[in-house]
Design goal:
α6 links the parallel β7 and β8. The strands form 2 sheets. A 7-stranded mixed beta sheet has the order 3-5-4-6-9-7-8, sandwiched between helices. It has a two-stranded parallel sheet with strand order 1-2. It is globular, with a radius of gyration of 22 Å. The protein is built from 8 helices and 9 strands. The model has no long low-confidence stretch (mean pLDDT 91). It is an alpha/beta fold.
């Protein structure tokens, strides 16, 4: 529903609308709420929601009695600007297409943006270390950059490595990167995202691979995991991480994730709990994916 509403609002803005009013004509039990951390891009015009009672009173009943209905909006907008930096490195093989490997390097700080799951985050003012979310992905990206740079056989694609900022606040870094660079499937072959890859369970070996439905090539890639992992497949190209920004630009994506845990978004997400050998195993799999895709070009 959120995606459908976003698409309609974006199209209305493109067609010259100065504002968009969404309405509920069915009397839904729960009204939508504003999500400042939405995975979708900001619409360029004001968007408001009209509940069922207001819709019936101001539009339906007026239309029945008077014909055309005029609705006026008086909106105050407070704009807050914050800055962040994406960090990128590039291997130029003079290829037609580029592969993006990404991970976000931001976390929650002291939980001041109200996204901490610690019971007394505002009062206790504790550092949220983010060892799994997402120092594990940041380290994985650095390791993948070294492996790809050292492998001279990987020459059929260019390779772009990006650590994104602002992911926890709503994918701001990856949204901005895709938009500013004008990225789409005419330039980017695919994108791999590593977010929370440091807590592989030694008993179950469950690895979630998202975005499998975004390219027919991914079926064989998932099968490559073999007996090393119990792969849980998520076909969707959207989710609460940076691959979504690329999928929304029409780029095939894969998302690697070893699962949530009791320390998620808490100060207790510490290095001591990282399964380092498990992360190495995940990296071996991601490396096989890159090698297979490059070889087939």
């Amino acid at each position: 529903a959120e995606k459908a509403a976003f698409d309609k609002c974006r199209e209305a803005a493109k067609q010259g609308a100065t504002a968009v009013i969404l309405f509920d004509g069915y009397g839904s039990k729960y009204a939508p709420t504003f999500n400042s951390q939405s995975i979708y891009e900001t619409v360029t015009v004001p968007v408001v929601f009209m509940g069922t009672k207001a819709w019936k009173k101001l539009v339906v009943d007026r239309h029945a009695n008077k014909g055309a209905v005029t609705v006026s909006l008086d909106i105050d907008i407070a704009k807050t600007e914050r800055s962040g930096n994406n960090l990128a490195a590039y291997i130029d093989n003079n290829a037609t297409y580029t592969v993006v490997l990404g991970a976000h390097y931001d976390h929650l700080g002291y939980g001041e943006d109200h996204n901490s799951l610690h019971a007394n985050a505002a009062k206790d003012h504790l550092v949220h270390h983010g060892a799994d979310d997402n120092a594990s992905g940041t380290a994985a990206l650095l390791e993948m950059a070294g492996r790809i740079k050292a492998n001279k056989k990987l020459r059929h694609y260019n390779y772009l490595f990006v650590n994104f900022s602002g992911e926890e606040l709503g994918l701001f870094g990856s949204k901005a990167f895709v938009k500013q660079e004008g990225l789409d499937s005419n330039k980017i072959a695919y994108m791999l995202n590593m977010d929370m890859v440091g807590r592989l369970n030694d008993s179950t070996h469950v690895l979630t691979v998202g975005g499998v439905g975004t390219s027919p090539a991914w079926a064989d890639v998932v099968a490559m995991a073999g007996s090393d992992f119990k792969v849980v497949i998520d076909s969707a190209g959207v989710g609460p991480s940076d691959h979504t920004s690329f999928y929304n630009a029409g780029i095939p994506v894969l998302f690697f994730f070893t699962g949530t845990h009791k320390d998620y978004h808490k100060p207790s997400d510490l290095p001591e709990a990282i399964n380092y050998q498990g992360e190495v195993d995940v990296l071996k799999y991601v490396t096989r994916v890159v090698e297979k895709m490059d070889k087939e070009q």
